[in-house]
Amino acid sequence: xxxxxxxxxxxxxxxxxxxxxxxxxxxxxxxxxxxxxxxxxxxxxxxxxxxxxxxxxxxxxxxxxxxxxxxxxxxxxxxxxxxxxxxxxxxxxxxxxxxxxxxxxxxxxxxxxxxxxxxxxxxxxxxxxxxxxxxxxxxxxxxxxxxxxxx
Length: 151
Ligand code: IDP
Ligand code: MG
Fold this sequence. Notes:
Elements: E1 4-11, H1 13-17, H2 21-31, E2 34-41, H3 45-51, H4 61-68, E3 73-81, H5 83-91, H6 104-108, E4 117-119, H7 123-133, H8 146-149
Antiparallel strand pairs: 1-3, 1-4, 2-3
């Protein structure tokens, strides 16, 4: 059994505009992850630039910041054993054209720029992003159903 982890997941403005919020939250909930943080907000430029700072030298950076600040996003924190990898697997590869069916990007996106959702790519990133988007902390609780989800 792996470690209990918490990961940061964000439905991007295209996912919110297209009405995919309930479907996406449902996939994480049905998988067995525990929702420990949930916020809808229109990100400031500063927040978006800090979140995507690792990409600041990339040619798509300014377009990415413009896109992420263009409308509301839904920021979430999900906890579970191996949650960072579990969430990345639910989300699928970056380019929707190549993402397999059954993944969120595979089912809902056609493009690398408008790919509906973000998920932290490792433990360090998860810590950084959770602190950035949930500065007031997360909700401390346990799903009663976890005794049926984990061995
Ligand atoms: P990830 O979201 O799958 O981790 P990253 O390579 O970390 O993918 O890129 C972060 C985000 O930047 C992507 O989700 C996508 O929205 C955007 N992005 C990445 N590469 C491109 C590109 O070549 N053109 C436009 N947007 C891109
Ligand atoms: Mg990434």
